[in-house]
């Protein structure tokens, strides 16, 4: 690895702490120190974000509101205010821009920064990360956690290491050992089902993963095997891309008890619509293609999709198309263990009509 230019990069991953909930607690003193969930409290509501006080009770994002309320009876629900979050996000982005133009936002509340060449000539990624966190606290009244390392993969892992309001620095010679010590569930992209599959294969930690060769990983995880092979060794050559364009936005839920009846499936689908619409709102996205994914109890997966000449730009349209796609697989031949929706064919901001209005009804013929 000697002489590898990517080892000389200085990457920071900044992640705001419980962003939406923290904004609500900042703006409403009565909520401070209390368990707060941003989202709907109705039967079909979903938690978009939870304060750390709520997380102590197991409340988490994408959890059905009724489940969250059951786990935390004193939970306070507040409606999301995406415009307020966007304003704060822009403040934070301006703080980043004081140090570098190489900023790759992942959402309103997190971003990668490449500070190898920093505008202020500070020269130290650690000092820059400290300065950014201090400025965020002083100018927004919020806290952020940061990971500092030589690549994006490890910087993102590091930012989660000392949350909330913490920082973790991983140097190039520490990277492989740091990755080896972590459970694979911490790896970005490894969800509960993938972690479960890995556990059955005897892979529990980064160290276990590093023992597998690339052919074995490709056999079990397909094209993703190459990523896992290098990640397990602390290697990630991806640059911070300031011009990255998001290709899709999705959400899915896996169920402990398979869904079988039409009523169960439609209720479950509405919850997913709530989740994906929150993500669409946060990213100010519009897209022309909606894909429904369903996985049966035997792990067979099917998809149904529709593409339109005009963008799906409001929740009602997303829900309408989603239920039409669900109609195509009803009645289900066996229990459904997973449902998901993905909006793709996203429009760039230059393709979106200024002041565009919701499109309303769509034609399905």
TrEMBL record:
Protein purpose: Poorly processive, error-prone DNA polymerase involved in untargeted mutagenesis. Copies undamaged DNA at stalled replication forks, which arise in vivo from mismatched or misaligned primer ends. These misaligned primers can be extended by PolIV. Exhibits no 3'-5' exonuclease (proofreading) activity. May be involved in translesional synthesis, in conjunction with the beta clamp from PolIII.
Subcellular locations according to the entry: Cytoplasm
Keyword presence, DNA damage: yes
Entry similarity comment: Belongs to the DNA polymerase type-Y family.
Identification of the protein by name: DNA polymerase IV
Pfam families per record: IMS (PF00817), IMS_C (PF11799), IMS_HHH (PF11798)
Subunit structure: Monomer.
Keyword Iron-sulfur: no
């Amino acid at each position: 690895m000697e002489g590898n230019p990517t080892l000389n990069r200085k990457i920071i991953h900044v992640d705001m702490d419980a962003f939406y909930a923290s904004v609500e607690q900042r703006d409403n003193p009565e909520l401070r120190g209390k368990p707060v969930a941003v989202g709907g409290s109705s039967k079909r509501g979903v938690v978009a974000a939870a304060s750390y006080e709520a997380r102590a009770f197991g409340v988490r994002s994408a959890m059905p509101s009724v489940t969250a309320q059951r786990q935390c009876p004193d939970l306070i629900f507040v409606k999301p205010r995406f415009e307020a979050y966007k304003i704060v996000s822009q403040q934070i982005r301006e703080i980043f821009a004081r140090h570098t133009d190489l900023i790759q936002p992942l959402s309103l509340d997190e971003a990668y920064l490449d500070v190898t060449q920093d505008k202020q000539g500070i020269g130290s990624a650690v000092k820059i990360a400290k300065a950014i966190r201090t400025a965020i606290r002083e100018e927004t009244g919020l806290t952020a956690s940061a990971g500092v390392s030589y690549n994006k993969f490890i910087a993102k892992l590091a930012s989660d290491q000392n949350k909330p309001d913490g920082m973790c620095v991983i140097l190039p010679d520490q990277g492989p050992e740091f990755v080896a010590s972590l459970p694979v569930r911490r790896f970005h992209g490894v969800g509960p089902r993938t972690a479960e599959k890995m556990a059955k294969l005897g892979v529990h930690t980064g160290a276990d993963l590093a023992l597998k060769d690339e052919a074995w990983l490709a056999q079990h995880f397909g094209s993703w095997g190459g990523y896992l092979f290098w990640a397990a060794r602390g290697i990630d050559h991806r640059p911070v891309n300031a011009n990255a364009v998001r290709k899709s936005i999705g959400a899915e839920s896996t169920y402990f008890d398979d869904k079988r009846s039409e009523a169960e499936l439609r209720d479950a689908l509405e919850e997913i619509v709530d989740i994906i619409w929150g993500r669409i709102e946060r990213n100010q996205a519009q897209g022309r293609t909606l894909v429904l994914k369903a996985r049966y109890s035997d792990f067979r997966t099917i998809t149904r999709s529709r593409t339109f000449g005009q963008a799906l730009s409001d929740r009602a349209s997303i829900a309408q198309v989603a239920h039409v796609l669900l109609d195509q697989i009803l009645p289900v031949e066996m229990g459904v263990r997973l449902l998901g929706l993905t909006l793709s064919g996203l429009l760039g901001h230059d393709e979106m009509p200024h002041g565009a209005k919701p499109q309303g009804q769509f034609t399905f013929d």
